Amino acid sequence: MRLETDIDGTATRRSFLRGAAAAVGTTAAASAGVGTTTAQSGPDYGDWFSNTDNFDGTYDYTGKKEVTVYVGTDGNGTAYGFGPAAAIRVDPGTKVTWEWTGKGGSHNVEASDGSFKSDMYSDAGATFSHTFEKEGTFEYFCRPHKMMGMKGAVVVGGSGGKDPSGLSAPQVDSGGGGGESGGSGDGDGSGSNNSTLVSASVLTGGVMAFLSPIVFGIFLLLQSSDDGPE
């Protein structure tokens, strides 16, 4: 009987130890899971950004009424990026304006759910705006360069994300603005000098056209007097 009691006691102690070890393991796993969830700074985008090399999390722009996202920033091998943050969080009612940098060719901004879509632009300074009224996650892309990874996302509502204060706006190409200013005379003055030269050329040509018949007539008179009788 004592042997059976010892066997039962040993079995009971072993079961207790196994149960305690399992409980500790479960608690540790649960703690690790909570830590992982807390460390995340944005929603789960699935594989949306799987080929977007300039995506590094969701940046928190809540509290701002207007946010600018640039089109044609460095990313995905060339200027095929949205930035300075590919994914942003904003409050409902925020106006997001996309501004073209003039780099990377022609781009557009198109929502995956069809809620907004811009025209195709390539000129620096072109803009497109959309006000986000409803909460949710709105993924968007550039139609010609979607396969290259030119994608973005706007998360509307909620809280949390990375601090965008360290981000800097990309440089926007000046395009043909300088040439237009020079042509209108508002630049370095070269437009005025060119206009003066053109006017002088036109005036000179007109004078020569007027004098040519007179000079030719005088030449004929002199020729006939030379050929006459002495």
> Helix count?
3
Give the end-to-end Cα distance, rounded to a whole number of Å: 170 Å
Report helical residue fraction: 25-40%
CATH class of one domain: Mainly Beta
Can you summarize the main beta sheet? Answer: 5 strands, mixed
CATH architecture of one domain: Sandwich
Low-pLDDT ranges: 1-11, 20-40, 176-204
Structure summarized in a few sentences:
The chain has helices at residues 2-39, 177-184, 190-227; strands at 58-60, 66-75, 78-83, 87-90, 94-100, 110-111, 127-132, 136-141, 151-156.
Characterize the structure shown:
The structure is a single chain. The protein is globular and about 95 Å long. The protein has a five-stranded mixed sheet with strand order 1-4-9-8-6, with no helix packed on it. A four-stranded mixed sheet has the order 3-2-5-7, with no helix packed on it. The protein has three helices and nine strands, in the order αβββββββββαα. Among the domains are: 1-39; 58-166, Immunoglobulin-like (Sandwich). By secondary structure, it is α/β, with parallel strands linked by helices.
Give me some keywords for this one:
9 strands; Immunoglobulin-like; single chain; five-stranded mixed beta sheet; alpha/beta; 3 helices
